[in-house]
Amino acid sequence: MALAPAIETVALERRYGETLAVAGISLVVDQGEFFAILGPNGAGKTTLMHMLTTLITPSAGTAAVLGFDVVRQRAEVRKRLGMVFQDPALDERLNARENLEIHAVLYGIARSDRRAAIEKSLDWAALTEVAGRRVRSFSGGMKRRLELARALMHGPRVLFLDEPTIGLDPQGRRDLWDRIAAIREEGVTVLMTTHNLAEANACDRVAIVEKGKLIALGTPAELIAEHGGREDADLEDVFINLTGRQLRDEAATAREHIVSFSKRGGELTR
Amino acid sequence: MTVVATKTAAPSSAGVRSWAGFAPSVIWIMWKRELLRYGRDRSQLFGGLSRTILWLVVLGYGIGAALREIEGYTYAQYILPGVITLNVLFSSLQCAIALVWDREVGLLREVVISPSPMLSVALGKMLGGACIAVLQGTIPLLFSPLIGLHLTVWSVLGAWVVMFFMGILITAIGVLIATRLKTFEGFGSISNGVIQPLYFLSGSVFPLKGIIGGVGMLDIPDSIREELRRIGIYAIGGGWLVQLPAWLQILVYINPVSYLLDLLRYVLLDFQQLPLTADVLVTFALPVVAVVLAAAAMSRTLQHR
Fold this sequence. Notes:
The complex is a heterodimer.
Chain A: E1 7-16, E2 19-29, E3 34-38, H1 45-52, E4 60-65, E5 68-69, H2 74-80, E6 81-84, H3 96-106, H4 111-124, H5 140-152, E7 158-162, H6 170-185, E8 189-194, H7 197-201, E9 205-210, E10 213-218, H8 220-227, H9 235-243, H10 254-263
Parallel strand pairs in A: 3-8, 3-9, 6-7, 7-8
Antiparallel strand pairs in A: 1-2, 1-4, 4-5, 9-10
Chain B: H1 6-9, H2 24-40, H3 42-66, H4 75-105, H5 108-112, H6 118-142, H7 153-178, H8 187-200, E1 209-213, H9 222-230, E2 234-235, E3 239-243, H10 246-254, H11 256-269, H12 276-303
Parallel strand pairs in B: 1-2
Antiparallel strand pairs in B: 1-3
């Protein structure tokens, strides 16, 4: 029997009032693939990822993870996926071990196995020595490692990474990249969103998303050959040729306002 | 770099054990999270302490200098249950409103994406809020020797029970507000617009009706005092009859906190101004209703976006 695809979407749509954040995307990601969703901020990458991870419900179309429907079989999907959000989803007042303990309980890891699972994750993230320190004092790289270790704790078969390298220094990026490579060697499907062309270039296949639509899909080499237009073209040329513009940031979203408010030390945060 | 094989390392994930959305381990861990957070936040303890000193000690003795007694109690003793209520209001609402940022930039996204039932997440949160409320409400209680109030084991236990239910109720109300808030720049107005009215309109700082005076020469003879008490008028200093204006009375009567506070005062001071049956009913039934509504609202907004 053939393996169910890691991800399969058919005419997937998400509407926010009048705007279509995701406007009918159909794609298939095979198990074990390292897959990038490339596009500018506001292209619908995060919305797409949130539908696949059951955080938001599609307005139309279907999506399945490992053959399980994200709406009807939500619990089955959730058990099998790991997710790292764009910015840390950690409790910064708690220490690393406590954050991992919450995850262990939420994913139903048996009480007798919890301790070992937590220590293993800490070891994997190279955070054992600082496990008792509050996460608030961690660097961006340490938080990202902790989140990655946490997302892997329950043995997911599909790992979702939303802009995983944002806010990391070059060393942190390299470390993250090495870790992703190690995860892939174990056959875990990795799907990440990015607006970094070099990162997309390192993936098996790339889906270019713009204004909620899938405008190109293929290996980096295929995309460059098909849409590059010139001899020494790269993915940047592909993107410009397809959209007529460069990758750039769009307006801040409501949650970015909250992020910045809490970073300014707004009332009662964290 | 040590790479641990994720496939072989996958711990035995029996799945979250739950019955119709009740997962004891999930309730427990979310409760524990709230208490750990509370333990790490000195500012909350400091807030509880400074509120107690300002209200109970400064105001208690300040107003107390003019108001010699309220039905035999000093003013500080009279407002002690009110100060406890104030601490409960603050800590519960703070715990609940934290949902707004927790949902956007905190741990809650990680919680929402897990296979755990959100009903249990909501229950754990509200239980946590209630327990923090009991801890914060206990701060003024520690001052009772200072204001000459004698506590018994039973009055303390009783007060904790009322504080717990008050904490549940207010956390649930806060959760209902938080699920409707998009951003939280508005939190300041929430705390002023919710906490203060609930506090001031609960009979916390002034009695519902009484006789005021205190010049010393108008002390009420015991026989008249007895008769007044039977018709629900309490001696304050001894002198002129006062009664709150009707509109203010109505506001106090429709404020659910009034009944919980009245029961708290009954437990601590053996003095109450509202019908005891209403107190008991509101204290124990309303939180249950509020928790059901809040848990439903919370799991709805967390799940279906």
